[in-house]
Amino acid sequence: MSETSNSIMKPTITVAVCTRNRADALRDAVRSLCQLKTNDRFEFEILIIDNGSNDHTHDVWKELSSQSAVPIRYVREDQPGVTHARNRAVAECGSDWLAFFDDDQAADPAWLLELLELTQRRATRCVGGKVVLRLPEGCDRKLHPVVRMLLGESVGLEKERPYSPSITPGAGNLMIRRDVFDDVGRFRVQPNGRGEDTELYLRIHSSGDTGWYSPEAVIHHIIPPERLSGEFLLDLSARMAVGMAEDERTSRGELMYPLVYGARWVQYLGVLWPRLLLAKIQGDAETILGLRCRLRIARDVLEDGWQLLFSSFIGEVPKTTSDHVAQA
Prior knowledge:
Elements: H1 3-9, E1 12-19, H2 23-34, E2 43-50, H3 57-67, E3 72-76, H4 82-92, E4 97-102, E5 105-107, H5 111-122, E6 126-134, H6 145-150, E7 161-162, E8 173-177, H7 178-184, H8 196-206, E9 212-222, H9 230-241, H10 244-252, H11 257-282, H12 285-314
Helix pairs in contact: 2-3, 9-12, 10-12, 11-12
């Protein structure tokens, strides 16, 4: 087989990096992508989607593209929101596969190769990989699993496995064959402002495709010191809780939801609070922080659930559960 025909046979991948006003972080992220190994198995390009930056993002692209052997394209998408940026990536992609990568990450050199091999091994059109936190230099904190989850780490996923409606891929480490978007549509803006990657995967799953996860396809999420503060993590917990009650009622149905809501109260009062009190007695600061975050999520979901539980029967009700739900 000639060299030209062999090149044509190789799969092609576009790695999309959506960014907004994080030029310096973007530089490091793209440099890590430029070091990806292909083992002569595939060809790839890097596509920067600038979601309306007013910093020096465009200059960083020019700098990187002039130095890189890997093609780097730049597209500006002025409609704000990561959903619109990701959909612009779909529109711009001419490759067989489209991978998504965040601008505050660093890729393991074998990341893309592992994802591609997974697609072949499992005959799937959707794959994702492991996210590992990269803490600030000198940080030796033993973060609680809840905190690690909030910061994006793949907690408890140590073996290759299929995704499911309850375990879905995140868009920071995700690769989808381009024709999937023709079959199921693109990302959709969500009412609660989050979860567009989960909603997309649920459509993929419902169409009959099962995605797969590999712990060998590793990216590192860069965590600056300010994201380790209690204030930031509790605020992140509150944002994580937005829409969870509504999603739960939708997935379980209105008839089953009262039972689910009751079980959440049992967990909140009978499990989470006792664990927090024990951690305080033991003086375990990291466990205390992790459980405060978990309680914040539970409290907000219970409060939202109170509204949902009675709205269909007696209309809009005031948020009275804050009188009963103790502050974590």
